[in-house]
Write a structure and sequence with these properties.
There is one protein chain. The protein folds into 2 domains: 114 residues, Rossmann fold; 124 residues, Rossmann fold. 31% of the residues lie in helices and 23% in strands. The strands form 2 sheets. The chain has a 6-stranded mixed sheet. A 5-stranded parallel sheet has the order 2-1-9-10-11. Helix 7 packs parallel to helix 8. The two termini are 18 Å apart.
Length: 253
Amino acid sequence: MTNEREKPVKSILITQSQPEPGRNVYEDFVSRNKLKMDFRGFIHVEPLTAKEIRKQKINFLDYTAVIFNSRNAIDYFFQMAEEMKVEMPTDTKYFSTNESVANYIQKYIVPRKRKMFTSKGTEKDFLTLFKNHKKEKFLFPCSDIRKPSIPDHFNKNGFDFTECTIYRTVSSDLSDLENVFYDIIVFFSPADIRSLYDNFPGYKQKGTRFAGFGSSTQKAIAENNLILDIPAPAEGIPSMLSALEDYVGRVNK
């Protein structure tokens, strides 16, 4: 980061939807530093159609176990099952990446302890759930953008495993931001960067500082010849909030 880019900050755009009341982790930071902060989701998700699911040659009833890693996946899976007039058998096993996801499944099924398996929250713990279920036929309903760790684990260990893209991540319409400028824009995924250029193909960064959370986001920033001014996480900086605190604390003295 060059010193010439370390200029005072008055406005920040977070490329995520407005947090629910009481859940804005940036609220105190903004108040203390007298900043303008806006939230705007650069991306959103859309379910695939039944026709698109059939093109993947997926029949939900062919599988004895389903893996869920998000609430979106749960909603779109059961909504699609209803649309296709498919009723999942009562002995179907459901595997969840964390307790929150597991609890959400109960919106659609009556829970049975022997049919629901839940991780304590870490990826390592989640992947150990399957060691005693090698005879199952697993279906993984997921987004078109997902981490490779789950399919890599199943394919490496010889499980009967099939991915089903059930929803996609698409760029939101940002046309109303064309002539709106912020000192800092905070990105959380490569899809956010894609949305920036989908909306503004000729975008020039100029003096706008970019903050990027996670290695994949930072890689997308670099691949588009953009300048990453505020990386997170970093040594001693575990979150995007702490990264912004550190940067603004330096430049707004």
